[in-house]
Amino acid sequence: MSGFLAGAWAVARKDLMLEARSRERFVSMATFAVLVAIVFSFALDASVRARSIAGAMIWVTILFSGTLGLGRSFAAEREAEVLTGILVSPIPRGALFLGKFLANLAVVLAVEAVIFPVYGIFFGLDYGAGALGLVLTVVLGTIGFMALGTLFSAMAAHTRMGDSLLPVLLLPLLIPVVIFAASATQRLLIGRPLGEVQGSLRMLLAFDLVFLFVCTASFGAVVEE
Amino acid sequence: MDAQMDTGSLAGTRRWSVVLGVLSALALLPGLWMIFFYVPTEAEMGVVQRIFYVHLPSALVAYLAFGIVALCSLGYLWLRDERLDAIAVCAAELGIVFTTAVLTTGPLWGKIAWGAWWVWDARLSFTLLLWFIYVGYFILRGATENPERGKRFAAILGIVGAVDIPLIHMSVQWFRSQHPKPVVLKPEGPTAAPEMVQTLLVNMLAFMLLFFSLLLARYVVERLSRRIEAARMLRAA
């Protein structure tokens, strides 16, 4: 087990080091997210109170910018033949998946750390009271998103259509995460107590565990030659 | 020799498909007659309710088809048996066809009963997502450069979808539902008129037979076209 985790950590560290040096994924995702917020502000009618739909706007932004980043998740593996190297090393396939997942999770969480303040400023949201619940919701929602996303981005990397295929496969499967994450976020934003979203958080946790298990177990069949 | 034996069993499959097809026609004709002439018109919704005898059997057949996709996908990843992949593809195709029937008959009814083609109701959303997941199944298959890999990828989507479908179902149920509640398939027994139950059961049987007949026929075509493809590759090499 410790060998498994060490393998996963080694893969995650490699990805995060690459990302820390180039920052290309983070910068493009964060820029895109801010642009989506600007598009929302122009597209919305002035009479719509942004606060009452902010949960939906934030999760649409997270999904779009997250999918954008996932598209580059296996870029190094594909372009520089890194995957062959990883596959001949004594790292189990499940650990490879977990490593890629952790790296993706860290990048998207960093982007979300930009999204929330930007939306707060642009749409006058107050996170103060529900901050703890919001952090929990976002982390739990993102774990499920990245579990499925990492699996499908590995598949999309082997197709002719590449990145354009990813959202088509991913979005229908992500609906349960979206439903609970967006509704919990919305309730916390309008000042409802943490107790009211407990059910949603528990559902998100259950999805995360199921997705992580299924995706880790089936990843071997994705990278197999 | 192997191929010869296989051809023999495919011919057997083809015969079964014809037998089931004839049986399904024998059930469909009285089924249609019952829909138009036998069953009484429902008091509240009127004549449009008769669409239900096509709508519900299509939905059940679609669920059955996707269940077969999931089981065969799991089996394919385990055993790597070409035949399981072929069944999964054929079942997925038919699943999409019958889901399309559900998504067509539903709005036709809804426009008259609810006054709207579409509402974001639990079951409607669920069925629409089902359709998209399995359309993705074919896009993924077709877009993968290596066909063997395409089969594996599709099988994974079939399995992840099978895990996700109950989750979507559960999560959308949390919303209010406008969709009519079951009147036939419920634990304490049907509350609909006996003629309605009979009409439904005959049509359900007809649709099941039709599904299996089409599945077997499509399977034979799939296997033969794969054999042609393999022979073509061999000649090219």
From TrEMBL, chain A:
One of its GO terms (molecular function) is heme transmembrane transporter activity. It comes from the Bacteria. The keyword Cell membrane applies. It is found in: Cell inner membrane. Pfam families: CcmB (PF03379). Its main location: membrane. It is a multi-pass membrane protein. The keyword Cell membrane applies. GO terms for cellular component: plasma membrane. InterPro entries: Cyt_c_biogenesis_CcmB (IPR003544), Cyt_c_CcmB_bac (IPR026031). Belongs to the CcmB/CycW/HelB family. This is Heme exporter protein B. It comes from Longimicrobium terrae.
Automatic annotation (TrEMBL), chain B:
Keywords: Cytochrome c-type biogenesis, Membrane, Transmembrane, Transmembrane helix. It is found in: Membrane. It is a multi-pass membrane protein. The chain crosses the membrane at residues 16-39, 59-79, 86-110, 122-140, 152-176, 196-217. The keyword Membrane applies. GO terms for biological process: cytochrome complex assembly. One of its GO terms (cellular component) is plasma membrane. It comes from Longimicrobium terrae. PANTHER family: CYTOCHROME B_B6 PROTEIN-RELATED (PTHR30071:SF1), HEME EXPORTER PROTEIN C (PTHR30071). This is Heme exporter protein C. It holds the Pfam family Cytochrom_C_asm. One of its GO terms (molecular function) is heme binding. It comes from the Bacteria. Belongs to the CcmC/CycZ/HelC family. Its main location: membrane. Residues 20-176 form the Cytochrome c assembly protein domain. Required for the export of heme to the periplasm for the biogenesis of c-type cytochromes.
